[in-house]
């Protein structure tokens, strides 16, 4: 493992992009208000051609210190309820790094943190722009106890709605240009001072005299000179207390905008020949040759393994064994798509021998949970020294659209300057409708992975499913499979209970035929 990777691992927070909760053990690293992220699943933000068609919806919330900005942001999250993936990005994360002399002044309450020059507004706007445009960002971590920006960073990706809050949130024109909705929280000065006193004593360990001195010296003049004038840029003014009506109006507006941006196309890509023009310009199914798949040579061994795996009476123990065996062969076969260079070694008898050496600077794997886990052991058998991440992508019970619930990605993917030189093996059990494949590839591209550096490894591909649309959208990626099945057909997944189906008679799904059934269930249950 490269030394650079080890150094970066030590300095980058491993916070996941979904399901981040407030932790009482973190106040010295980053205040609880700085980042709040909840998720009900990220729906598609791209069209069937693979291109991004919608940005995240960004709300800027400004106001004086203690005006209630964070409360307003949290109330928006609470009242939005089922709207997917909302994050709060606080301006407090972007205080500039302090030199030792400045840090000493800060501990003596003599450093002006309330002037725009105290903030790295350029970095704030860059990080916010990345998140708005569906890219990852690594957010600075600031310690109020130490008055210093720390080496750690917090990784964020996947927000559908972003709330950027801070006293200077509306000061910078570059920031204002990123907002879809601008909010100013207006509050009485006495109430703001009382709230600031309580917060700084309780959460930041300050003494009352120091708080008052800092307030009179810096906070109040900054509010009068820089913060309050920005209210003219706001689309809506929200009172600092008793503001439930205003928050309800904001949430109604957000839901409306979110519904306008929703993209639904999985039913079309499931049986694409009924809806799309094929690569050959007709509405007929693509030939296997047109799909440009790398298929394992159909030797008697491969045919025998596939026969065992297709058999519904196959004991689970045998299913696991032969799944692991087939995945090992698949991953070995997929390595032909990596770059190699000539390399000369000296044999034990002192003779030079020229062969090949892998020329991929960074290599990692990403498992599409949970059926992709059936290929994980085979991947580790072939190469066990590289990072392995995962994505959890499941179908919404109402719309059948894919939802990105979690993205636990390797560090090579999360850091953009490494991503462009990284090759990624994506592991999933099958490509049927191709909805999960679409989303996983789009996530990798958002992180800066090159399309021609993605190798998708799978047991089965349905020729009549979404693979033809996937191929048109991402022609440079490689797909390695063990076999190609002919058709996709609508059917019912028995035993599912949900809305509109209280008896559990089944959920409508698209089935690959002949297929292997629900591979994740057969492997893990």
UniProtKB/TrEMBL annotation:
Would the keyword Cytoplasm turn up in this protein's UniProt record? Answer: no
* GO MF terms held by the record: ATP binding; uridine kinase activity
Which reactions does this protein catalyse? Answer: uridine + ATP = UMP + ADP + H(+); cytidine + ATP = CMP + ADP + H(+)
User: Region entry Disordered: which residue ranges?
Assistant: 1-26
- InterPro entries (UniProt xref): P-loop_NTPase, PRK/URK, PRTase-like, PRTase_dom, Uridine_kinase-like
Polar residues compositional bias: what residue ranges? 10-26
> EC annotation?
2.7.1.48
Q: Where is the Phosphoribulokinase/uridine kinase domain?
A: 58-240
Keywords of this entry? ATP-binding, Kinase, Nucleotide-binding, Transferase
Pfam families named in the record: PRK (PF00485), UPRTase (PF14681)
Tell me the ranges covered by the Phosphoribosyltransferase domain, including all copies: 297-490
Please tell me which top-level EC class this enzyme sits in.
transferase
Q: In which pathway does it act?
A: Pyrimidine metabolism; UMP biosynthesis via salvage pathway; UMP from uridine: step 1/1; Pyrimidine metabolism; CTP biosynthesis via salvage pathway; CTP from cytidine: step 1/3
State the family named in the UniProt similarity comment for this chain.
Belongs to the uridine kinase family.
PANTHER family assigned to the protein according to its UniProt record, in alphabetical order = URIDINE KINASE
| Protein name, UniProt field | Uridine kinase
Q: Which organism is it from?
A: Crepidotus variabilis
What lineage is this protein's organism placed in? Answer: Eukaryota, Fungi, Dikarya, Basidiomycota, Agaricomycotina
